[in-house]
């Protein structure tokens, strides 16, 4: 059985959305630790508020999003993914230009259109350029790892890159956002009660979040995802 991360990567190869993660303890007040970088619960809450405001401004109903996790979990996954692959790229000397980032948006019909896709997949607008930059880094690393035009080589290369990212720049989540399972993504952990922001825990329209809804983008030139 392929891992959750690789299944999502393959499903969203055309959409440019990535989800990777691993587990572990984090210090109080942290939502996640990415390598040596801390994402605080306060930072996450701010991003969730901004995302919800942007969804409302663009008339995208939160309760109609086709997502795999709660909105806070999705935002957190996307924030950690962005930081993880950017850091891996820095360590391996992989760079991405602003032009490359803009080219992805152009391939989606321009930033105005692409921003709506990003919002619908739990990516706050102030995180969007860094997120796309991270996905391009991941794609370049996958190409270096032997990704070709066939699905088998792409899956194998993505698996290598995801494993290298997780070992080189590990991600640790606060248990209040749920336990991360490699086969399923975030799952409820009865030891800690209701998952923060999960259905029934006070988050409107939280019937699932995550990158899988990005398939609607259908972008020919968008970066692949893992």
Count, helices: 7
Structural class: mainly alpha
Give the low-pLDDT segments: 6-21, 192-226
| Assembly of the depicted chains | single chain
Largest sheet entry = 3 strands, antiparallel
Radius of gyration: 16 Å
Shape: globular
**Strand share of the residues?**
5-15%
Note down, in words, how this protein is organized.
It is built from 7 helices and 5 strands; from the N terminus they run αββααααααβββ. It has a 3-stranded antiparallel sheet. Residues 6-21 and 192-226 have low confidence and may be disordered. Helices cover 45% and strands 8% of the residues. By secondary structure, the protein is mainly alpha-helical. 49% of the residues are buried.
């Amino acid at each position: 059985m392929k891992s959750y991360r690789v299944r999502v990567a393959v499903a969203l190869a055309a959409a440019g959305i990535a989800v990777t993660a691993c587990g572990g303890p984090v210090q109080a007040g942290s939502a996640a630790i990415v390598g040596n970088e801390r994402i605080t619960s306060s930072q996450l809450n701010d991003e969730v508020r901004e995302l919800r405001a942007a969804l409302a401004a663009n008339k995208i109903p939160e309760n109609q999003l086709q997502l795999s996790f709660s909105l806070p979990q999705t935002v957190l996954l996307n924030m950690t993914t962005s930081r993880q692959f950017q850091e891996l790229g820095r360590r391996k000397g992989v760079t991405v230009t602003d032009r490359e980032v803009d080219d992805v948006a152009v391939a989606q019909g321009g930033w105005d259109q692409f921003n709506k896709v990003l919002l619908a997949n739990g990516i706050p607008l102030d995180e969007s350029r860094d997120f796309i930059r991270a996905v391009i880094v991941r794609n370049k690393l996958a190409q270096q790892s032997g990704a070709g035009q066939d699905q088998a080589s792409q899956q194998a290369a993505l698996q290598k890159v995801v494993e290298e990212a997780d070992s080189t720049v590990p991600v640790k989540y606060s248990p209040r956002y749920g336990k991360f399972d490699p086969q399923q993504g975030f799952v409820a952990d009865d030891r800690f009660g209701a998952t923060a922001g999960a259905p029934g825990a006070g988050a409107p329209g939280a019937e699932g979040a995550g990158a899988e809804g990005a398939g609607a983008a259908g972008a020919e030139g968008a970066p692949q995802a893992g």
